[in-house]
Request: fold
Amino acid sequence: MICLLCGLMIVLAPAPVRGVDSVELAIDALAGEGWQVDTLRVVLRPGEEHHGLELQADTLRLGEEFELRAVHAECAAMRLRGLGGDCPDGRIRFEHPWLGAQTLPARFSYAHPGRLDLQLEGLLLAGGPVDVHVKMDDGQWELDARGEGLDLQALAALSADAGWPWPVTASGDGRLTFAARGRGALPDTLDLDLSVGDTAFSSEDGLRAGEAVDADLAVAVAREDGGYRVELTGRWTGGGVYLHPVYVEADVPVRLSMQGSMDLAARVLTVDGFELDHPGVLGIAGRGTWAIDRGLSGLEATVQLDRMDLPAAYELFGQPFLPGTALGVLDTEGLLAGGLRLHEGSLQEVVLNASRVTAHDRMGRFAVQGLDAALHWRAAGDAPLSRVSMDGGHVYGIALGASRFRPVIGRDGFHLPEPVHLPVLDGALEIRDLRVAGLDGGDARWQFDGGLTPVSMEQLTAALGWPELSGTLAGIIPEVRYEQGLLTVGGRLLVRAFDGSVTLGELRLRDPLGVAPEFSAQIQIRDIDLAQLTRTFDFGRITGRLEGDVRDLVLVRWAPVQFDAELRTPPGDTSTRRISQRAVDNLTQVGGGVGGVLSGGFLRFFEDFGYRRLGLSCRLVGEVCHMDGVAPAAQGYYIVQGAGLPRIDVIGFTRQVAWRDLVARLAVIIQDSGGPEVR
Reply:
């Protein structure tokens, strides 16, 4: 078309002499490869040196989707140069559905047989000016564009008008540089540089947001063998981004790069390599292919976690997914690394390495120190043997020593083929045949057999913050199970203390590392030496033996909510049974009486008294303790039935007492004696 116009101008150059002022050409439709013009009108005004040109068209279509309407181009002083010409000062007006009405300065030149150079200045795009430069030469074309001060909110509106709505609303400034070279409809090369500054965005559901974001992206595309070679680099240099539930700030520049290719015929994307570097947090690299038409099953990938630095990676990418769990509030240190492999979209292999990892629960429930690990998992076949070691740690303040083991990891769990010796205070927990399953479905379960070699009660009670007890804790544990949040112990634990024994059976612990663990047990107390017991708690001296049972004990958050407890003198006890004035006074207060009744009268001259039997029971229901003794009395119940002369009986009068009041009475008794705190 331009050749036709220039040819007419050459013929009509001397027209003014012959009295020709203008020549008009009208064409209903004109089309070429990739373009079409409808209702074209061309007006030529020949001059001596410069010639006027005016072009009007109802529509100009470029490609299949881009259409300009009411196109009007004019050049008042076009100069002819052989079979071509140039226009140094022209104007173009048009309308577009989402670009709106535009009037642009334009410069162009043309040389036969098809060399075109067109420059447009100030194209208004999203509130900012964009300069466009187009070149064509013998079927080869070039397109360059540069724009600054682009308003992202307006750009989002334009994108929505064009049929590509953004998933977020955005505001801020943008800058772009675009360059494409090609022959035909598709480019041979394409380079895009995009920068945004002080950008804010948010999604309607509030699950994605950003503020003060500064970032830039560079994309380079080049044709190769039926497809395109693609290189991408990006930098995020400022601001914060929230992608539920993760919030990350670019305190240091975050860098992303990718190199790959796209096979257009096969619709296969190949990533030769990508890297994500967040200094001080993590570094990731990988490669893979994706057959797009096959969906997720067409994905083959290998991802390498070069490093994950703790605590930053835990706080940014771990903690947001773990609220309310045992791992939700940790202080961490150390380094993680590893990798994974996908085949047909399914996870096939995972490697995780830990180096000098330390994790302390801020609620004081547990800690791990000096953890080193190399863990290997495969979906099929045998994985390499894993290894784990740690310097120590604790569970609820109970110290754990150094340990190491080599787990065999299967598809949904692991097992320990060899026994593990785990030091616990001055004893040890022996773990045999540990098997863990259900890890792939989020319903973990495990079991093992084991035993507890004697642990000093002095060290155990000190670790738990309890009154100091002497003796040992040991036991054979034939079957320990954990399933659906419930830990059960099949055997019994035996505590040797005060020359007697305390046996714990039917042990249950629900949600052991949760915020509200629930513990239940049946407890038997046998042949306790009361002299040692009362000396330990400084309750007032009592001699003799003691037995008892605590049935249906339930603790929630380690505080009792239910039990049926009874302490009593064993039937047939032949030991010497004596009770001091102070012990009588304290037991009177426990039973609801007034202390100090022996401080007056002749009984004050006796240091202790004989007794036949003693006992006290409490059945806790709700927050009320239902109390009883060894036998009914006229107005209550006997806590102590005296023997010999002078005879002392201790009678309780309160049958029901609030548990907190009973604990308060015991606290007063112990604190008055200068003994340990009662909670």
